Structures are given as structure tokens and as C-alpha cells.
């Protein structure tokens, strides 16, 4: 076989993607073992039947040919009015490109702003695909490490310093955040906007969890003064409407950027299936109540987990205000997140994601996805806390406590 490109051969950096616990859990499950999986961000409900019926109707009515590459007009209009209403920033169809999911939007946005070899910044902890996405666009990923003690919020100085050091072209941010559940407030957003202006950065704002906000309000960086011209917003219906498998999302960006992004889509995806777009339009037309309904179990389960955690003092949660996850600090056990997660899986058949899967900044933590029924989740958290308490006691007894 002729040699593959360096770009594709090095997409995963050092080759370890941090998903070993997840793969092991799946392998055990395939052997028929009962594994309680709190790993990936997939709802425990499917797409609403009415949305599926609309896709079926649209496909049967003949919407199975090539759809318009930028997205069908009605859907682009609907996304534009949704964004205008939620952010107060005037947005039209010409600011919108429909994409096959948020992931394709993340890739396209980086393709649009990075020349080969230019640096794209992102915040650590991060959604696992970020470095690979930047590499796929021939960029150099550069992580800005945040600290658990700062609730994993980045500061102006950190972003500005990293941008200067690397001569970066872009900054990828994600609020509400996966994996930490943090929601960027006024100070953080102001720091992002000032650092972007000072270093002439594009901000790629991943807002796929914008309907999962439990405390406070989601503010899009695009809504800050002067930011609409340098921000690309990534949206998706995966999380808001439990449509992960339908692969439907969007980019909202300045008009000229969208024109170039349409060129890229023509050369890559050639658009999104028309019947999926019709289903998405129907779903958005149902209004906010549908999104609130999809988000509700995660709101309830977050409260439930916090209540269980309040009964003990070994495991603590990073203060979370959004998204379908909680990041738990297990450092009192003396273990790193990965060792803890493997041992928990072996001892109790409960699978959680090691914090390290999301970057070095989340070492000593594990992420739990709030994606199983309430009673199973309570049981899992109580078991996890009991397991951590035993490890912590053994550590104190053996005198290895720092
Ligand atoms: N961004 C974040 C932060 C995510 O957690 C995910 C999926 O889990 C995505 C983007 C990609 O979502 P999708 O491609 O399904 O829209």
C-alpha cells in the first residue's frame, strides 16, 4: 500500500485516545455482562416519533434527491430566526450553513480559518474530538489548561498569553461545557472577547448544549459587542432534540464566511439529506417545550446526583450549571481518573469516563453522563462514592496521604 498522508496518520496525536475504559465496557457488554454505562452523551430516549413520522412523510413525498448544499431555505430561515431571538444578534439565512451534525461544523469552521500549520487554540478539559478536528484541518492544536480550583474557567491572561506564544488564528470554546458542565459567565466571556480582539482571533463557539442550562443563562460569545464579525457558532440538534443519529447541525457565521463554507460543503459533504432537514424543521417548529422536555431528565438527575454526593465528603462535583454530565473530583482516593475508572469497572461493572480522556487538566476526575434511569444512576453514584471512600480510608491507614 502506498504511504498514507502524515495528516491522517497523526490525527490522534500520540495514538492514545483515552477511550480505553469505554471500549472495555462495550466489550464486557458484548460478552453479555450487565454493565452500568455512564460514559457517552447519548440520551436514554430515542428521537420523538412525530419527528420520525415527518422524516418518513418527507422521504415518501420524494424529498430523497440532492438537497440544496447550504441547506433548504426554510430550515436556514428557521435557524436564523431561532438564533436572532435567542441572542438578539440580527441573523439571516445567509449567515447559516446546515451541516451533517455539530462535528462536521467544527471541522468546517477550522478549515475556514486555519491555513496549514497555523495554531488553533482550545480549552482543556475539552470534548475528545477537538485536537483531531484541528489536525484534520491541517492546523496545530494548542490546549489552554484550566484548573479545577477555578471551576475550569479560562481567563483573559491565559488566552491572551497562549495566543501570543503561538501566533494563533482561532480559539475554540464550549459553553455549556462538555465534560465539566461549566457555563461561561460575564467575566469569562468578556475575557474571551478581549483576547480575541487583541489577537485578531476567530472564535469558534461550540454551543451544542445550549438547551441544557440548569442555573443562570447561556450567553453566546457572538452576542458580545464586536464579536459577530469574528465568531462562528456551532449548533446541533443531537443533544437538544435527541437526534444524534440524524447528523444535523449548523454553523452561524458572517455572510462572506458562509459563502466560502458553502464551497467547502460542495467539495465534501454535498449537503444534508432533504428528509432529515424536513424532520429538523418540523422539530424546531414545535418550539421550546420539546427541547425542555428532552433536557428535563438531565436536570432532574443532576439534582439527584448532587443530593447523593451531599451525603459524603470523599467525592465532590465541579460546580456545574449545564450539559448532561457531572465531573467528579476523586483525588482523595489517591488515584488518577483512569486507574479509578478501570478499578470501578472491574469491581462494580460501572463505566465512567476518566477525566484524562478530556485532557490533562481533568486528571484526578471522572465524568459521569446522566444518561441512565434515575434509580440506576442513584445506585451507581452511591456505589462509586462507597468505592472511593474505601480507597481513601485505605490510603489514610497506609499513611500515603499527602
Ligand atoms: N461538541 C460537543 C461539546 C459535543 O459533546 C458533541 C457530541 O457529543 C459534539 C460537539 C458533536 O455533536 P454532533 O456532531 O452529534 O452534533
UniProtKB/TrEMBL annotation:
UniProt key word ATP-binding: no
PROSITE patterns the record matches: AA_TRANSFER_CLASS_1 (PS00105)
InterPro entries given in the database record: Aminotransferase_I/II_large, AspAT/PAT-like, NHTrfase_class1_PyrdxlP-BS, PyrdxlP-dep_Trfase, PyrdxlP-dep_Trfase_major, PyrdxlP-dep_Trfase_small
EC number: 2.6.1.-
One Pfam family named in its UniProt record: Aminotran_1_2
Coiled coil: none
Domain named Aminotransferase class I/classII large: residues: 34-383
GO terms classed as biological process: amino acid metabolic process
Named cofactor requirement(s): pyridoxal 5'-phosphate
UniProt catalytic activity: L-aspartate + 2-oxoglutarate = oxaloacetate + L-glutamate
Top EC class, one word: transferase
Gene Ontology MF, one: pyridoxal phosphate binding
Keywords, comma-separated and alphabetical: Aminotransferase, Pyridoxal phosphate, Transferase
Family: Belongs to the class-I pyridoxal-phosphate-dependent aminotransferase family.
Protein name (database record): Aminotransferase
Source organism: Sagittula stellata (strain ATCC 700073 / DSM 11524 / E-37)
Classification of source organism: Bacteria, Pseudomonadati, Pseudomonadota, Alphaproteobacteria, Rhodobacterales
Amino acid at each position: 500500500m502506498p504511504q498514507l498522508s502524515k495528516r491522517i496518520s497523526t490525527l490522534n496525536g500520540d495514538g492514545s485516545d483515552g477511550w480505553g475504559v469505554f471500549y472495555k465496557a462495550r466489550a464486557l457488554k458484548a460478552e453479555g455482562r450487565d454493565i452500568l454505562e455512564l460514559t457517552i452523551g447519548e440520551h436514554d430516549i430515542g428521537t420523538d416519533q412525530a419527528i420520525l413520522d415527518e422524516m418518513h412523510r418527507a422521504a415518501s413525498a420524494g424529498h430523497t434527491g440532492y438537497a440544496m448544499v447550504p441547506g433548504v431555505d426554510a430550515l436556514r430561515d428557521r435557524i436564523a430566526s431561532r438564533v436572532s431571538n435567542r441572542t438578539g444578534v440580527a441573523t439571516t439565512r445567509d449567515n447559516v450553513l446546515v451541516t451533517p451534525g455539530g462535528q462536521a461544523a467544527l471541522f468546517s469552521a477550522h478549515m475556514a480559518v486555519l491555513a496549514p500549520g497555523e495554531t488553533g487554540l482550545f480549552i482543556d478539559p475539552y470534548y475528545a474530538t477537538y485536537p483531531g478536528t484541528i489536525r484534520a484541518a491541517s492546523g496545530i492544536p494548542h490546549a489552554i489548561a484550566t484548573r479545577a480550583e477555578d471551576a475550569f474557567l479560562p481567563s483573559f491572561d491565559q488566552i491572551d498569553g497562549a495566543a501570543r506564544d503561538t501566533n494563533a488564528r482561532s480559539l475554540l470554546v464550549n459553553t455549556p461545557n462538555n465534560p465539566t458542565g461549566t457555563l461561561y459567565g460575564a467575566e469569562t466571556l468578556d475575557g474571551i472577547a478581549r483576547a480575541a480582539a487583541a489577537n485578531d482571533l476567530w472564535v469558534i463557539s461550540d454551543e451544542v448544549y445550549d438547551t441544557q442550562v440548569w442555573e443562570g443563562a447561556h450567553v453566546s460569545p457572538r452576542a458580545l459587542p464586536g464579536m459577530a464579525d469574528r465568531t462562528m457558532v456551532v449548533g446541533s440538534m443531537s443533544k437538544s432534540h435527541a437526534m444524534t443519529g440524524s447528523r444535523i447541525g449548523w454553523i452561524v457565521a458572517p455572510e462572506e464566511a458562509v459563502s466560502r463554507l458553502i464551497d467547502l460543503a460542495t467539495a465534501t459533504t454535498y449537503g444534508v439529506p432533504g428528509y432529515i432537514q424536513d424532520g429538523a424543521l418540523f422539530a424546531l417548529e414545535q418550539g421550546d417545550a420539546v427541547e425542555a422536555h428532552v433536557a428535563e431528565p438531565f436536570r432532574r438527575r443532576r439534582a439527584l446526583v448532587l443530593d447523593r454526593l451531599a451525603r459524603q465528603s470523599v467525592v465532590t462535583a465541579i460546580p456545574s450549571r449545564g450539559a448532561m454530565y457531572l465531573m467528579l473530583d476523586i483525588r482523595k482516593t489517591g488515584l488518577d481518573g483512569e486507574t479509578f475508572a478501570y478499578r470501578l469497572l472491574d469491581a462494580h461493572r460501572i463505566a465512567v469516563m476518566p477525566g484524562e480522556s478530556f485532557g490533562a487538566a481533568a486528571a484526578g476526575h471522572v465524568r459521569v453522563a446522566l444518561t441512565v434511569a434515575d434509580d440506576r444512576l442513584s445506585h451507581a453514584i452511591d456505589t462509586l462514592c462507597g468505592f472511593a471512600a474505601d480507597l481513601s480510608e485505605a490510603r489514610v491507614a497506609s499513611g500515603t496521604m499527602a
